[in-house]
Write a structure and sequence with these properties.
374 residues, alpha/beta, 7-stranded mixed β-sheet, two-stranded antiparallel ribbon, 13 helices, globular
Length: 374
Amino acid sequence: MAKPGNRLLALTFLLLVSLPAAVNLFGVDGADAEAENRDLAAFPRLDSGWSSVKAFPLGLADWFADHFGLRARLIQWYGETRLFLLHVSPSPGVALGKDGWLFYVDDSSLEDYAHVQPLAAFGVRNWRAAVLRARDWMHARRGAYVFTIAPDKHVIYQEEFPAGIRPAPNESRMDQVLATLSDSGVSVDVRPALFDAKAHERIYQRTDTHWNDLGAFAAYQQIIERVRAQNPSVPPAWQRADFEEIKQTVPAMDLAGMIGLKRVLLEEDLELVPKRPRLARVVEPVGALPTSEEGRLVTEIPGSSLPRAVIFRDSFGSKLVPFLSEHFSRAVYLWQNDFLTDAVESEHADVVIEEIVGRHLYSFVPSPELVPAN
């Protein structure tokens, strides 16, 4: 016969494991999509079709895993315990830097920081071929073309990275690609401008992967300067005197979400607010913000005769959109890295800008053959 203490322990265990489902039954959703910074599983649809019936159990399991009662609270408690009591990161994808800095170490970021696997010679040649094919294709059509690499935060703020890891004495892939393109006339190394800006202001977010407005602005100026060298009808870049810098304390950003502490940590956001009205408006998708992370985002300046542009980009391009859009009558931002001639031709683009974040030089292999030889 079981001892009373054992029965109490078993009953307590059953109550605890049943509590999340019980909370759901009372209509409480334990999810917090904003805090986790991702799309959570939707409740599965069940109709008369056999396929939906067959998929329902797995869909329900996925939904419950994302929405079980107290999920957000438990994740937060776990993150707080790991960070504040044990002083370790709650997520293997996030490293704890110095002075409250968080660093993304997934998606080849750690390999990029450590320079562990430089590009082989054929990889360098492939990048050169891809950029020069795009350049020559655009120039044959009297268009401008610019290629740039957005530096990851660990490139600009290496001193804030965890002290236990140091780069190998190899060239980074970013160094290799920009070196092979140094004579191309179309590549832009934004690092010098970023380091200059960093000397007197913070240009990346502490709790986010990306640059802030100040970092994006420094990069934007270099990009527009290279565009204007090929097409002087593009207006000059705006200057810092055209903006007012606003500091505001906001909830922590994407990396804090990855460790379950977006509602706990804070970020001092540094924003550039224009002193004169911006003219560009988002026309697709309707209602989207310029910085919305959409697969296709289109801005237009009503009644403008400025050149038209296509920008191939990733998440680092989002902060560039409000700045770049003021220089083009129509700008189409496509979330991808390959140069697509069909997209450029259909938009009658006078300017093409390609931006890729440095860590993606580990995962993305360009395809020069996608661009017809002239």
